[in-house]
Design a protein that fits this description.
single chain, 116 residues, mainly alpha, Helix Hairpins, 4 helices
């Protein structure tokens, strides 16, 4: 039981390891927000006037890009323009990078906490 209390204290004390984790995760969240807005602008610009698209307004473009970033290939219809498809692919790749970066930040946090 003593080991559990010691571990809890170590994990809840906001030290240098916690600051590094928080800054890495904040960077990923901020960068993903920027990618979301830029992807929405691109998606709206290339898709809104295309025939057969589901993206007619900026709000729909923002919904589409956010869904792509959160789900990595949602059930929404794919873009109809070639450039829209490239933007969609870039959004999905960023989502994978963001998840991997978050996992790496967490792994680094726990590994450095275990080593000292």
């Amino acid at each position: 039981m003593h080991g559990l209390a010691e571990e809890w204290t170590r994990l809840t004390t906001f030290g240098e390891h916690h600051r590094r984790l928080a800054s890495r995760l904040a960077l990923i969240v901020i960068a993903t927000g920027i990618v979301d807005v830029l992807g929405s602008v691109a998606m709206y610009g290339f898709e809104h006037s295309a025939h057969g698209t589901d993206v007619a307004t900026f709000g729909q473009a923002l919904f589409f890009t956010t869904a792509q970033l959160l789900t990595v290939s949602s059930s929404l219809r794919n873009p109809v323009t070639p450039v829209g498809r490239v933007v969609d692919l870039a959004l999905e790749l960023w989502a994978v990078v963001a998840v991997a970066g978050s996992a790496g930040a967490m792994a680094s946090f726990f590994r450095s906490a275990d080593s000292g």
